[in-house]
Amino acid sequence: MNRLAPASALLCLAFLDPSHAATLETRSYTVEITPMCGERVTDCEQFAYAGTHNRNGSRINLTGKPGQRPCPPGNAPCDPLGWQFYDGNGTSYFVGQDGWLIVTGGRKTVLRERGNWRN
Question: What is the pTM of this model?
């Protein structure tokens, strides 16, 4: 696996205009993360999430912001960074620079899959 891929995906997202996306492919899902800021903005704080279930084609679209994966107590600093999205029904979606897709409902982890970034 290319260890530079997550970092390069974040770097690409920081400098691309809103029509470009970085795509994470896991075993079950394909997720596109798109910055929602103008091309001159280098510190974008709003992103779009378009997730597609690879088997049945169902989709979910969310907006979110840069975020950090929750860490167990005593594990500071907590890495890696990524993007955090909420569906309004108590479910959170974290997409990590390191390729992790973590879906949490309340305090329960519903999905935890690692994938690969593609451009």
Answer: 0.76
